[in-house]
Amino acid sequence: MATSTDTQHTATTPGGTPAERLVEPDYGLLEPLDVDYAGAFAGATEADREHWATVRTFVQDDVLPVIDGYWERAEVPRELIARLGELDLLRESVDVPGHPKHSPLADGLASMEMSRGDGSVATICGVQGGLALRSIMLLGSEEQKAEWGEPIARGEKLAAFALTEPTHGSDSVSLETTATTVEGGYVINGAKKWIGNGANCDVSVVWARGDDGQVHGYIVPQDSPGYEAKVIEGKVSLRAIHQAHITLTGVFVPSENLLPEARSFKDTSRVLGATRLSVAWSAVGHATACYETAVAYAKSRVQFGRPLAKSQMVQERLTSMLSTLTQMQLLVVAMTEQDAAGTLTGPQASLTKYTCTRGAREIASVARDMLGGNGILLQNRVARHFADIEALHTYEGTESVQALIVGRDITGMSAFA
């Protein structure tokens, strides 16, 4: 918070009347800097950059002017979701007939830019496209793809990916929700937690253990009898997307709603593995927003008679932040090239997520500190990213789980159990 020292030096800054000198300037904290110190994005084609520019325009014109209010109210920005559908930005990297295909680099840059705008909006895209839509388009029947692909891609139907349970997060492979075979379909019983779009939306892809003991996927309309979902309140992260605690009690699902290619948890992992790089790109976006804000603030904020940017300590901290951000950029691009070539491994994706979310946390922490008391205000951007990175650091596999995946690859020995 402002101290007497802050006030004293602000008041003695040259120019204007005393009252004018006590008014803080507009620090210009929302403008992009196009940070790419090592040329990590130099290989982006014109088409890649056009897709990136579409997302940036959406972020600058639609998201940033309103998102603080939604975040503070813990309200889902429905009109932004509609706009995402209009712009064809809800698919992430999922191919849907009739929609243009993008390169893996273009999809990564789009994920980065969306998170540079806001973590909740980026998570809505990740849940809708990266998880729910991908489950159906990757593991569904042709009829299921035809029925759900276009409405979910356009945002006409909002979808959830219901895997995590109240007592099974990192060990989701041990999920206890069951799907019992009955005449004409299945009856699902169990519970799910932390399910984005899981309440007050249209459909959930629910993962449950069948009679064969294997994990399967089921398309479950949220208005099905026995499907009850409560929005989780009291979150201090990703406040502009609702996560739900779902209870499934005798929910009947017809046979045609079983995803035919979801035969075991390995197939579930195919969906999760495909999104892990996207999460790493999102971490780069959050880190970029925090770095941009720190640079703009340091150049504009005057203390002790000079801009913060003239301080040796501030310059060293900005350099450290840029160093971390540059390493993150180079890593996600290198791994995205592996993905495009079809050679990306699960441990490589885990290492990328592990590295980038750790880096984003470090950059956000330094940026928040550099803004002093102003760093806790939503209007100054960093606080929202600071909080949202905490959720990003956890979902799609915690840091510890990613480390165990990589550690198993290094040693050849599993430490999971």
Tell me the radius of gyration. 23 Å
Q: In terms of structural class, how would the helical and strand content be classed?
A: alpha+beta
Give helix % range.
40-55%
Number of strands: 9
Shape: globular
Record the strand order, biggest sheet.
2-3-7-6
Helix count from the secondary structure assignment: 13
Tell me about this structure.
- This protein has 417 residues and is an alpha+beta fold.
- It is 50% helix and 13% strand.
- It contains 13 helices and nine strands.
- The strands form three sheets. The protein has a four-stranded antiparallel beta sheet with strand order 2-3-7-6, with helices on one face. A three-stranded mixed beta sheet has the order 1-4-5. It has a two-stranded antiparallel sheet with strand order 8-9.
- The chain is globular and about 80 Å long.
Observed structural traits:
alpha+beta; 13 helices; four-stranded antiparallel beta sheet; three-stranded mixed beta sheet; single chain; globular; 417 residues
Describe the structure concisely for a colleague.
50% of the residues lie in helices and 13% in strands.
Helix-strand blueprint:
Layout: H1 4-11, H2 18-21, H3 46-63, H4 67-73, H5 78-86, H6 104-117, H7 119-139, H8 142-153, E1 159-162, E2 178-182, E3 185-196, E4 203-209, E5 215-221, E6 227-231, E7 243-254, H9 265-300, E8 302-303, E9 306-307, H10 312-341, H11 346-370, H12 382-394, H13 399-411
Parallel strand pairs: 1-4
Antiparallel strand pairs: 2-3, 3-7, 4-5, 6-7, 8-9
